[in-house]
Amino acid sequence: MNYQWYPGHMTKARRMMQEDIKLIDLIIELVDARIPLSSRNPDIDQLGQNKARLILLNKSDLADDRLNDAWTEYFKEKGILVAQINARNKGSLKSLQGVILEACKEKLERDKRRGIQNRPIRAMVVGIPNVGKSTFINSFAGRACAKTGNKPGVTKGKQWIRLNKNVELLDTPGILWPKFEDQTVGLKLAMIGSIKDDILNVEELALEVIKALQNRYPGALQERYGVEEATEPVAVMEQIAEVRKCLLKGNELDYLKTANIILDEFRNGKIGRFTLENPEA
Length: 281
Description:
Elements: H1 8-20, E1 26-32, H2 42-47, E2 52-58, H3 65-77, E3 81-84, H4 96-103, H5 105-113, E4 121-126, H6 133-141, E5 159-162, E6 167-171, H7 183-192, H8 202-216, H9 220-225, H10 233-243, H11 255-267
Parallel strand pairs: 1-2, 1-4, 2-3, 4-6
Antiparallel strand pairs: 5-6
Helix pairs in contact: 8-10, 8-11, 10-11
């Protein structure tokens, strides 16, 4: 299966970001903690040259805790400020105000020298589709001011949100990049739900999820579904279909329904907490 998704609104969104970048002081980039490298859009590094940067490892509650810490160290060693968050949990965002002020320390000192006071930090919130940007903004702001949805492509336009007298956020649509040079990147993005399922073969995708869990987290599928997982991915899927009673007429196995269960439970953490990339890779 070829993994690619770059609808027309993403080209428009990229142009819009290019225009707005000169208005902002800080780029807050949300990445998915389960795939911290694959969920980084390489275009953002190019667009955000000479701007202060902050990376938020979102959905860290769904990722492997040990690897969350390893990825935090990885980005710190590259000189990038980083924080682990769960955008749905306001408690995990409490320290972010201080982190944002730290990221913009040079800008604040420059303003002070010039006699500029009380000008808020303007931050652009960026990231791939379905990484949780709007949920993060709403939780951080403490009110519903950005449209959210558990699927990619909900935010279509830009929106300025004033958090307080110190910080203003610009919400932007999620953008991918025109071509995945490495198809394993596209595969991982599809696994976590950043590419629309309706353009994918979900049965094939569910088999890839099974394969990834067998390799990286042996025992997880057995614990969740009570299946014998040391077999071919198709055989594991068939066992899950039987356990979950996913049957068509004539007692045939319903592979599509089974695939959707596997994908849904993998994405929402019901099978466990998983990270699909290591920092040294």
